[in-house]
Amino acid sequence: MPDMLGRVGLISVSAAKGLIASVYYKVTGVDVIGIESSVGRVLATDIKSSEDLPAFSRSVMDGFAIKSSDTFGATESVPAYLNVTHEVFMGKLPDFKVNMGEAAKIPTGGMLPDGADSVLMLEHTQKLDENMIEVVRAVAPKENTVLRGEDVKAGELLFQRGHQLRPQDAGVLAALGISKVTVHKLPKVAIISTGDEIVPPESNINPGQVRDINTYTLAALVKVNGGEPVIMGIFRDDYDTMTEAMSKSLNCANMVLITGGSSVGTKDLTPKIINSFGAPGVIFHGVALKPGKPTIFGVVKETPVFGLPGHPSAVMVAFDVFVRGVLLKIAGLSEDCVLSEYSGRVRARIAKNISSLPGREDHIWVKVESRDGELWAVPILGKSGLINTMVKADGVTVVGADKRGIPEGYFVDVRLFQK
Which of 168, 167, 161, 195 is nearest to 308 (CA)? Predict the structure, then answer.
């Protein structure tokens, strides 16, 4: 039997995710960019080191380059004595060799001279005169040094294709002389807003009209998740108008998001329009998810299309649960990048009882507070059409479809909103 919205049954969130995962997604093309702009971008090729890092053995302390065997057994009561014969200068190749009984003054980062196998810290010496030091502590071979290639060896695989570059990765690339990288282009995501009552944010509203919230919420979500939003505009609930908007979106984007028009009613055109562009068309319509039940997922010409609910809170939940993962795949992110699913999560105690209907996955807005050294998740409850609940919340916790709720004081995972 159809439900109140005309759908024949709702599928579970896990089943919906399974259907989404079963689809082939065409990855974007490539760009060559400078490493100064590379953070957050996804590599389109493997990167191997062409040289050793560091390129020479060097000191990690201010002190003296020595032969470690000259210090064996040295203590404060029975010190060793070394002649200071040379000095290492930063950025200069030492043109001398350290022999038995000798020491060369060396700064942090200085190149280890021939003959030396360790560095004696300045703090473990006493200066007797300009040419001799007293050693009060033994030094082991390689101590206080970094050897050539100890960090990265020539030919070593640094990053695999599909890796999302981080700030520290840019630093390693710079250290190895790699100033440009080949990355996947940012996926373009077309955003279509529908509804006869929707007007632009800058408009004065008449009775019955509302300003367009979802377009700008979605554009921000796309951007923080590595995509490039393409705002198509606001379109009337009219078949020809929306079909034209869909056609233009498919020609300019790697993904299409349609907000509004996903519930079944006299003006619900989204499923019909998606199907009009050919197979496979709509893959599912309606999920056992609150908020976000009327979510649609379809594929047109290898382009994923999502029909998202009209309520802003439901749009955010549906994006996080379904859209985000597809966007990352289109961006070329590696399948084994499991951390993306768990990033931005904290563990907290729920601050009040939460009830839920079994068979439905509930996403609850929460504010995170610190109480006596513990994190607590305070539910921010409100009607689905309210938007202020999103502003007050720090993140979302999920009540699984197999649960009737969460008792006060139980630990929950909170997925924090991205910034």
Answer: 195
